[in-house]
Design brief:
alpha/beta, 8-stranded parallel beta sheet, binds zinc ion
């Protein structure tokens, strides 16, 4: 069994074909998926998915790439997270690749999410791109480790992974680990402790090989597990078992 720790099932491409999405999850033995919020405006859709399906969970947060949307407050995030199926705060973080200019608002928004996560004791889902130093620094300054969480769709160096793990975080690998040019990332996936590893699709984006370039969906997380298994000399089943255990340890706080 596999769990997709990060997907966007409320995005139009996937929301329109949920029966098909669930069928592929079942045939690829993907038992659960965590639906990630990127805007408060759309959070009710994400929450509704988790309420309607016993194997779906939700997060609440505002993505660092979304500039023109409702800016969340700590109190708002904490209030929206007070729901049995809302298991995480995010996705949040920093992205200096997509947006440029004065991004102080992005760092402030990230701090808001960390404060909310600590306040409601739910883990963070952190997105970081071209901003690793500032991400780790703000995590330390705001004591993100008290909430814990995951560095999602990880594409940084082994040193960054180790620094995040040291702060109590998990590292989640997406379909990027199957891409031909992802040599350094495969090294990270082969090296970090298995008990800190999660797998995800980030669907509808980043479909893994052999579906690269097509619409991604949670069922494809199996291919991420297969690649990690190959890299570590394990069976895909063992990777599935470990990452499933990690998922519930982190998000169900068991
Ligand atoms: Zn992301
Ligand atoms: Zn995402």
């Amino acid at each position: 069994m596999f769990i997709d720790s990060h997907c966007h099932l409320n995005f139009p491409d996937l929301a329109g074909k949920l029966p098909e999405v669930f069928d592929l999850m079942a045939s690829n033995r993907v038992s659960h998926a965590l639906c990630i919020s990127v805007e408060l405006e759309k959070f009710p859709e994400v929450r509704a998915l988790a309420e309607a399906h016993s194997n779906l969970y939700a997060s609440v947060g505002v993505h660092p790439d979304h500039r023109d949307c409702i800016e969340p407050t700590v109190d708002e995030l904490v209030a929206l997270a007070d729901h049995p199926k809302v298991v995480a705060i995010g996705e949040t973080g920093l992205d200096y690749f997509r947006l440029t200019g004065d991004l102080e608002w992005q760092r402030e928004r990230f701090r808001t999410h960390i404060r909310a996560a600590r306040s409601c004791n739910k883990p963070l889902v952190i997105h970081t791109r071209a901003a690793a130093d500032d991400t780790l620094r703000i995590m330390r300054e705001e004591r993100a480790g008290e909430a814990g969480g995951v560095m999602h769709c990880f594409t940084e160096s082994l040193a960054v992974a180790e620094a995040a793990i040291e702060q109590g975080f998990y590292i989640s690998f997406s379909g990027i680990v199957t891409f031909k040019n992802a040599v350094a990332l495969r090294e990270v996936a082969a090296t970090i402790p298995l008990e800190r590893m999660l797998i995800e699709t980030d669907a509808p984006y980043l479909a893994p090989v052999p579906h690269r370039g097509r619409l991604n969906q949670p069922g494809f997380v199996k291919h991420v597990a297969e690649e990690i298994a190959r890299l570590r000399g394990m069976t895909p089943e063992a990777v599935g078992e470990a990452t499933t255990e990690n998922f519930f340890r982190l998000f169900a706080r068991t």
